[in-house]
Amino acid sequence: MSPIISLVGIVLGLCLLIFLAYKGHSIIWVAPLCAIVVAIMGGLNILDAYLGDYIKGVADYVVSWFPAFFLGAVYGKIMDMTGSARSLANKLVSLIGPKFAVAAVVLPCLLMTYGGISLFVVVFVIYPMGYAIYREANLPRTLLPGAIAFGAFGITMTAIPGTPQIQNIIPTTYYGTTATAAPLMGIVAAILIAVPGYLYLEWRCRNARKKGLGFVEDEKYKENAFDVSKQPSWHWLSGLLPLIVVVLMLNVLPGILAKAGIAEWTASQSIVVALLGGIFVSCIMNIKQFKVLLPAINDGANGSLLAIMNTACAVGFGTVVKIVPGFALLKKAMLNMPGSILFSEAVAVNVLAGATGSASGGMSIALEALAPQYLEKAITIGMSPELLHRIASLASGGLDTLPHNGAVLTLLAVSNCKHKESYMDVCVTSCIIPVIVSLLLSFVWGLFI
């Protein structure tokens, strides 16, 4: 089959994937369907492509990352159902106040995601609190999804060094790095994303007030706030301490053990131990709610299956894309792109994360195909693999938040807002700004290497 026709097939498959996912169809059946389109136009045997390459891609991803998904979901669910996350969020709100509504929503999101809680869990935990804050501040409810997305979908997922989110762990497998890779670049990126993003959200609030727009109740939403009156005054610490434990066990403990000659952990092993530590501390601090703990573990375990399958199916689609003749043209174009390999990697990860609607899925596809060549070139020119790690992580958190992204769809569904009402804010803060920052940093850093 002609590589050109195969390349057209890749584009058609991607477009179909985006369209069907945007319409709300499950990627579990959409991804293999689109993979078949790619396989047919790539001249592959359909059954071999599906039962062989597609299923292998799905299975390999599940085998590699299921422990992190499973433990992360359980950890987040325990923090949610015990009220620990809500107590911490309420404590922060009491310190900040509704006058600074945007900060009161964004900061808890940042803290929770940096502490290892899944962004999906954060959406469900923060929305009720944000709803009350925006009502108190008399701000349009449609502005709330933008603030939640800004806090949960980007900075602490990809930029800040040491984050236990999977988007920061995946590159360690390909580059032999740690979760704290390229700290200077990560901090600069966090600032470049945070400042314009926050100023934009504040500008949107000021404009709403100038236009006389205020809070309008959502008739479909039934407030079911966690009853903090039944918890001790220190209960917010049960939300904070597990987060600290996870971050320290991921970024500090492995180094101590290595220096002592006790153990040498990979990043994927470290995240498992760190999440187990967070779960243990959360359970101990909520031991009086022992009746809640087992159901939370059950719910988290069940939820982890859907989460990892959604991502794994996107990876399976990418596995088929990698083996058709057209992908060789794309790969050649990426590797021969003008500028540094950092810029090439930023473009590749952004494009594939956008195509799959998944940060971790798109990055996995890109790195599986291109990381060996990037690493070889980096060693040749004396570039630290840590820079490749950080750029890959940053770029995964850009175009992934296009309208068909699962987290975006979940956020809008929970907040009962339509794309036309709230997606613009999500797009600006979690897509446009991060894409610009990842491309800018990869270009600038590449000039001085």
Give the SSE layout.
Layout (H helix, E strand, L loop, with lengths): L2 H20 L4 H15 L4 H36 L2 H13 L4 H14 L4 H18 L7 H9 L2 H5 L6 H10 L7 H28 L26 H15 L1 H7 L7 H19 L4 H34 L1 H11 L5 H16 L2 H23 L3 H12 L9 H10 L3 H29 L2
Helix pairs in contact: 1-2, 1-15, 2-3, 2-14, 3-13, 3-14, 4-5, 4-6, 4-11, 5-6, 5-7, 6-7, 6-19, 7-19, 7-20, 9-17, 9-18, 10-20, 11-13, 14-17, 16-17, 16-18, 16-20, 17-18
Verbal overview:
The chain has one domain (3-210, 231-447). The chain is 77% helix and 0% strand. The protein is built from 20 helices and no strands. Helix 6 packs parallel to helix 19 (406-415) and helix 16 runs parallel beside helix 18 (385-396).
Features of this protein?
449 residues; mainly alpha; globular
